[in-house]
Design goal:
The chain is of the alpha+beta class. It has one domain: Thiol Ester Dehydrase, Chain A (Roll). About 25% of the residues lie in helices and about 30% in strands. It contains 6 helices and 10 strands. A hairpin with a 2-residue loop joins strand 9 and strand 10. The protein is globular.
Length: about 270
């Protein structure tokens, strides 16, 4: 998940006649304890158990490898992560190999022409299903009618549940931790090269930070989370976390807009 993979992603050409779905299975020999501890320290997770959102890093590697090795009908640069679900089925053991199967499904075009793909990942420890992850990406933006204005977001009702400040180098530090070196998260000049006004934090970073603070508040481990990534959170900004009126609901709010909203389930 370093410079070589990034270069391959930038150079990979689409195959219009690619099959649907694209499928592959990858073997992870073991999980590095040092990596888990660095992740826990970065977000505030307690103990040495594998946090739920750490599993996204494993799924993301398999998903990217599947797209790089298979024929896909779109270019990888420009994909926008719009939502993600994670479910853990019991403990994930560091020394146990995981068979990580991924299937990429192209969705039918939306009425406005927007295209999405869904990457479904299931990791097995022998015969046991260890965890599942589904990631939805916007492949092609839909058309907007002349005169249409973006819909105004209504901030959700809820109670304060935490918050954090995004450091200017948070994107680079998370990239080193996760292996996701998308240029839009790194420096102002790399973000501008990709059409962004300023670098933004990874959606998975916000998901993990919210997960850690919700676990701290409840004193329980999270076993599933479903997130929708609504708007970008620029580096250097303040993020506030709100708990919704229903059990497990939450929203991360940045610059007066919902950056991430979702629902969690605790063990």
């Amino acid at each position: 998940m370093g410079a070589t993979m990034l270069l391959r992603a930038l150079l990979k050409r689409p195959t219009p006649s690619a099959r649907n779905p694209v499928q592959a299975t990858w073997l992870l020999g073991r999980i590095d304890l040092g990596h888990v501890r660095r992740y826990c320290a970065a977000f505030g997770f307690s103990g040495d158990a594998v946090p739920l959102t750490f599993l996204y890093l494993l799924a993301q590697r398999a998903q990217l490898a599947t797209m790089l090795e298979g024929d896909i009908p779109f270019r990888l640069p420009g994909l926008i992560h719009v939502d993600n679900t994670l479910t853990q089925h019991g403990p994930v053991l560091l020394a146990r190999p995981l068979a990580i199967a991924t299937a990429l499904h192209m969705q039918p075009p939306a009425p406005n022409g927007a295209l999405h793909c869904v990457l479904e990942t299931r990791a097995h420890d022998g015969e046991r299903l260890a965890f599942e992850c589904a990631s939805t990406y916007l492949v092609k933006r839909g058309s907007r009618r002349s005169g249409d204005k973006p819909a105004q977001q209504e901030l959700p009702a809820g109670t304060a549940a935490g918050g954090w400040t995004l450091a200017r180098d948070a994107g680079r530090r998370y990239a080193a931790l996760s292996g996701d070196w998308n240029p839009i998260h790194l420096w102002p000049w790399t973000a501008r090269l990709m059409g962004m006004r300023a670098p933004i934090i990874h959606g998975a970073h916000t998901m993990a930070k919210a997960c850690a603070q919700l676990e701290q508040a409840s004193g329980r481990r999270m076993e599933s989370i479903a997130c929708a990534f609504r708007s970008p959170a620029p580096l250097g900004a303040q993020v506030s976390l709100a708990a919704g009126p229903e059990a497990g609901q939450f929203a991360a709010i940045c610059n007066g807009r919902v950056a991430v909203e979702g629902r969690a389930r605790f063990a």
